[in-house]
Write a structure and sequence with these properties.
With 140 residues, the chain is of the alpha+beta class. The protein contains three helices and five strands.
Length: 140
């Protein structure tokens, strides 16, 4: 373990299948779709997980574009995912497509360099080397 400061995320029940997430003064909601008992007031935790990975990839792509003097323009990423058919419940596959501005077509060598850079985003690295996770239960 490093000497880094411990960061905290607070999750609170709001009703139905919805939970409020607080991170550094920001708030968001996760929920379940109506067909699974929620009110669909936000993405599911799994969708947020995939969004975290895709947005991390997009962030690293943006930094790459900046370092090479390329405009970010309509830079972005699209992700799709599939759940595993067998247990335990988990995401089995994620596919991310990085969109670079059409006004700046990348040469093949630069595409390969960009692909290498985005493969090293923090969330992707975490999936490749999973963290130690502990879950405790305590009365409030």
């Amino acid at each position: 373990m490093s000497n880094r400061e411990v960061e905290e995320v607070e999750v609170s029940f709001t009703g139905g299948e919805s939970y409020r997430i607080r991170v550094r003064g920001h708030e968001m909601v996760v929920d379940q779709p109506a067909e699974t008992g929620g009110s669909d007031s936000g993405p599911t935790p799994v969708e947020l997980f995939v969004a975290s990975l895709a947005s991390c990839v997009a962030f690293y792509a943006g930094r790459f574009m900046d370092r090479h003097g390329l405009p970010r323009g309509d830079l972005g990423a699209t992700a799709d995912f599939e759940m595993a058919d067998d247990g335990p419940a988990r995401v089995a596959r994620v596919r991310i497509r990085v969109r670079v501005p059409a006004s700046e077509p990348l040469a093949q060598a630069r595409k390969e360099a960009l692909r290498a850079v985005v493969h090293h985003c923090t969330v992707h690295n975490t999936l490749l080397r999973p963290p130690e996770v502990s879950i405790d239960v305590a009365a409030t």
